[in-house]
Write a structure and sequence with these properties.
Blueprint: H1 2-18, E1 29-37, H2 46-68, H3 73-86, E2 106-112, E3 118-124, H4 130-140, E4 145-147, H5 148-157, H6 171-185, H7 193-200, E5 207-212, E6 218-224, E7 245-247, E8 252-258, H8 260-265, H9 268-279, H10 283-298, E9 302-308, E10 313-317, E11 321-328, E12 333-338
Parallel strand pairs: 3-4
Antiparallel strand pairs: 1-5, 1-11, 2-3, 2-6, 5-6, 7-8, 8-9, 9-10, 11-12
Helix pairs in contact: 2-3, 3-4, 4-5, 9-10
The chain binds aspartic acid (ASP).
Residues 35, 203-204, 206, 224, 226-227, 236-238, 257-258, 260 line the site of aspartic acid.
Length: 341
């Protein structure tokens, strides 16, 4: 009898030992940003702060509803970014920053984690929703990246909404450009520290979104006007796959914002994924490593948002603030602006 019990016990151990590790229940989640920089409470009015929080909440809920209904991470990212592209608060779509000629040149990129398919556009002037143009490049062209007039033409041929370049202009950005150009003329020598800070922050407000859907597919998208007073068709990290945007179902989805030149040199978005893939780091560890121990050490600043294949969110920055929000499958919403929130 004792022997029988012993045998039964061993059989049970063998049975449970051989059983596969419990599979993770399908889940979903979404994280967004609206730019990183020297965003300080003392420089913000309560009304302005409330406006930012409201648009962030509105945008993320659009994507959350799509995901909750079983929609794709691609659709969630696209529709969420549309809300921020339409808002004059952010440096993307309407309200984008102006180049040295006083007009806009918009950049955007998108990537799917399921098949590593991607699309990007840079320097467009007439596409109302640049993120959709990036998605069309991915879906309906043999290319990954289109630029300038050709990209505008492609977007129009694809039936995307086309507007005149004036649609994007806002008083706020016109004034910012004036101040930056005056400062450039004065060679910044007579500028007070607050004014220098103002100048340094004229690039911020890029938008981005990452999402995990119920089918386990990750997607990432980023959309920006780039930097105020940019010349020579300068292109930042936002439309560059691997720098500003990256998604891979094996690891995570990432969207970046900040001083683009440093994000390109640090290959920020791909590097985070690679540290997870090859070194087994968590998304949080990988993002910390790349932002603080790599990009910041080169002299850059900015932030990233991400989500991993299990739905764990990440928001990391080396700036005093980043407009950001996260929503999990249960519908818990967090909207944050300052670093120490
Ligand atoms: N990364 C963008 C660029 O360099 C700007 C930003 O994110 O604020 O064009």
């Amino acid at each position: 009898m004792v022997k029988m019990k012993k045998l039964l016990f061993i059989a049970l151990i063998v049975f449970y030992g051989c059983e596969e590790a419990p599979k993770q229940e399908p889940t979903f989640g979404i994280v967004i940003h609206g730019g990183a920089g020297t965003i300080l409470k003392k420089n913000m009015t309560p009304e302005r702060e409330a406006e930012y929080r409201a648009v962030l909440a509105e945008a993320i809920q659009v994507g959350h509803q799509i995901l909750k209904a079983g929609g794709s991470s691609q659709e969630a990212v696209e529709k969420t970014i549309h809300v921020m592209e339409d808002s004059p608060l952010f440096n993307s779509g309407k309200g984008a920053v102006l180049n040295a000629e006083g007009t806009i040149e918009l950049d955007a990129s998108f990537m799917n984690g399921a098949d590593l398919n991607a699309g990007a556009i840079s320097g467009v002037r007439t596409v109302k929703h640049p993120i959709s143009a990036a998605i069309k490049v991915m879906e309906n062209s043999p290319h990954v990246m289109l630029s300038g007039k050709g990209a505008d033409q492609f977007a129009s041929e694809q039936g995307l909404e086309i507007v005149s370049p004036e649609y994007f202009l806002t008083e706020r950005r016109i004034n910012s450009l004036k101040r930056v150009q005056e400062a450039a003329k004065a060679k910044e020598t007579s500028w007070a520290p607050e004014e220098r800070n103002f100048l340094k922050n004229q690039r911020y407000g890029t938008v981005g979104c990452v999402a995990l859907d119920l089918s386990g597919n990750l997607a990432a998208g980023t959309s920006t006007g780039g930097m105020t007073n940019k010349k020579w068709n300068r292109i930042g990290d936002a439309p560059i796959i691997g720098a500003g945007t990256y998604a891979n179902n094996a690891t995570c989805a990432i969207s970046a914002t900040g001083w683009g030149e440093f994000f390109i040199r640090s290959v920020v978005a791909y590097d985070i994924s690679a540290l997870m893939e090859y070194k087994g780091m968590t998304i949080q560890e990988a993002a910390y490593e790349v932002i603080h121990n790599k990009m910041a050490k080169l002299g850059g600043d900015g932030g990233v948002v991400g989500i991993d294949r299990n739905g764990n969110p990440m928001m990391e920055m080396n700036t005093p603030g980043m407009y950001r929000a996260h929503m999990d499958a249960e519908g818990n919403l967090e909207v944050k602006i300052y670093q120490d929130e």
